Amino acid sequence: MFNQNNQSNQSNQSFQSSQSFQSSQSTQSFQSSQSTQSSQSFQSSQSSQRIQRPQNNLPTFLARHGHYRHLRAYQVTEMIYDITFYFTRQFLGRGDRTVDQMVQAARSGKQNIAEGNQAAATSSETEIKLTNVAKASLEELLDDYEDYLRVRNLQQWNCSHPRYEQLRTYARSENLKNTYASKIQQMTDEEIANLCITLIHQAISLLQRLVESMQRRFVAEGGIKERMFQARTGYRKQIDDKIEEMEQVVRDLKSKLAVAQEETAQWKTAYQNLKQRALEAFNQQRLEIETLKIEIQKKQWQ
Description:
With 302 residues, the chain is mostly helical.
C-alpha cells in the first residue's frame, strides 16, 4: 500500500512539473512571436515611407546669349573698322581730324555691339541702348564717307551705276571676310568708300532687326528684376512644396506608429490574459494534487 502511494505521489509531481514547463514554454513562444510580428510591422511601415531628398535644381535668372563674335552684325562692323583704318591711313592726311573721328566711329560701332551683348545677361535696357549707340556711330561714319566722296567730286554709286549690283553681291557674299584685306589694297579711294557705304547700310539694317528682336524678347521674358523675382518665388515654392511633402510623410509615419503601438498593446493584453489562464490552470491542478494527496494519506492511516 505504501509503495502504491509513493508511486502515486511521484506520478502527480511529474505531471505537475510537465504541465508547468509546457505552460511556461507556450507563454514565452507566444510573447516572442507577437513581439517579432509587431517589430516587423513597424519596420515595414518605416521602410515604405522613405523621405526623398530634394534635388538641387536651382532656378536661374541670367539669360544666356550667344557670343557676339557669332553675330553677323558684329562681323560686318569688324570689317568696316578694318577697312576704315586702312582708308584713313591711306587717303587722309596725318593731321586731319577726320581720321580720328572716322576710326573712333567705326570702333564704336563694333565695340558697342560687343559690350551690349555682354551686358544683356543683367540688363536688357543696357543691351538695347548700346546696340542703338553702335547704330548711331555707324550712321555718323556713313556721313563721313559720303562727305569724302562729295567734297572730292567722286561718285557715290547708286542703283543706276554699272558696278552697283556687283558691289552689293560681293558685300553680301561669304567670300568677303576672307578676301577684303587683300582686295582693298588694289582698290581706289572711290571704290573703298562705296564698299564701306554698302557695308554700313548692311550693318545698320542688321542692327535694326537686332534691336527689334531685343524688344520682342524683353516684352516676352521681362527684365532682370522680373526674372530675379520669378526665380526667387519659384525656388521658395519648390522649398515650401517639399516641406509640405515631408510634413505629410511625418504625419503618415506618426499615424502608422500609433496603429503599431495600439496593436502592441492588444498583444500585451492577450499575453496577460493567456498568462492568467495558464496560472489559474496550474493552481487548479496543484489544488487537485493536494486533495489527492490528502485522500491517499487518509487511506494509508486506515
